[in-house]
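Tokens in:
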């Protein structure tokens, strides 16, 4: 497995890391040895605990081999100007910590629970939180959003009913991993490091009453096949859920990078924005889209 490098791979990544370090943060998890995990927050100008704003939590990509913690800084900068609070959490990966795939996936679920519990104090509408991520981060977002329903029994009446788990208002994946059994996900070691891998595999977690799904994928991606994402969205919809996929003919695995391909960045953001407005999760946008990332 590729070791995590603290050195940025480009001038753009270095700039985004600097922006990330300057953003306000909260400690969302503490360990007995004093280690902490932080979540960086990009909020609209003048944001306050009374704002009741929609929010997105982004799980970074890198397939757990690289810590691309600054990957969604450009996204957060745009969306915060749009009136949406963006949160970029840290989570442990094997590059620096002795953790397994099971630990990492559980940490993604813990981060979602932390945000849901603390939404009110952060000025976030708890009913308008979206979980988003790229490649392995997309897997983490899906796992948190697709927790199975529980069967509830009442002793005073016959029969049972399904109880929905804690789930976000929507989930978004950008070149996200949707099948941990696929060869493309071998690097994640889910099948060897998770006791019950079927409990974290999105393909095995498909069910009715899932939140709206937005998916974007580059058709030139050499690592993750776009056709698998198309199939996954179709299966999502067959169960009565809402899904939309944006395929980018000119995009490869650098899909989420504004600096590599601004046109693709804008195409995805516009498609995602339109979808979220249609779902009633984000407000109408009165900002000119040609002002992106000025």
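Residues out:
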């Amino acid at each position: 497995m590729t070791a995590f490098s603290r050195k940025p791979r480009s001038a753009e990544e270095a700039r985004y890391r600097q922006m990330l370090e300057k953003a306000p943060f909260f400690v969302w998890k503490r360990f007995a040895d004093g280690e902490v995990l932080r979540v960086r927050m990009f909020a609209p100008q003048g944001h306050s605990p009374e704002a009741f704003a929609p929010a997105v939590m982004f799980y970074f990509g890198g397939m757990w081999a690289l810590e691309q913690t600054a990957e969604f800084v450009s996204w957060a900068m745009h969306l915060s100007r749009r009136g949406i609070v963006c949160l970029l959490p840290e989570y442990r990966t094997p590059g620096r910590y002795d953790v397994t795939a099971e630990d990492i996936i559980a940490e993604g679920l813990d981060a979602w629970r932390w945000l849901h519990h603390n939404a009110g104090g952060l000025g976030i509408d708890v009913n308008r939180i979206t979980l988003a991520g790229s490649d392995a981060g997309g897997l983490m977002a899906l796992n948190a959003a697709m927790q199975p329903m529980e069967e509830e029994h009442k002793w005073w009446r016959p029969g049972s009913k399904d109880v929905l788990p804690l789930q976000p208002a929507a989930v978004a994946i950008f070149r996200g991993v949707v099948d941990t059994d696929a060869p493309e996900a071998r690097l994640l070691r889910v099948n060897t490091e998770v006791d019950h891998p079927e409990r974290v595999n999105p393909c095995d977690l498909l069910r009715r009453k899932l939140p709206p799904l937005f998916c974007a994928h580059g058709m030139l991606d050499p690592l993750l096949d776009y056709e698998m994402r198309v199939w996954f969205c179709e299966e999502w919809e067959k169960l009565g859920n809402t899904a939309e996929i944006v395929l980018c003919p000119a995009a490869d695995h650098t899909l989420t990078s504004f600096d590599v391909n601004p046109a693709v960045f804008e195409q995805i953001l516009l498609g995602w924005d339109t979808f979220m407005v249609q779902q009633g999760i984000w407000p109408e946008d009165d900002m000119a889209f040609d002002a992106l990332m000025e």
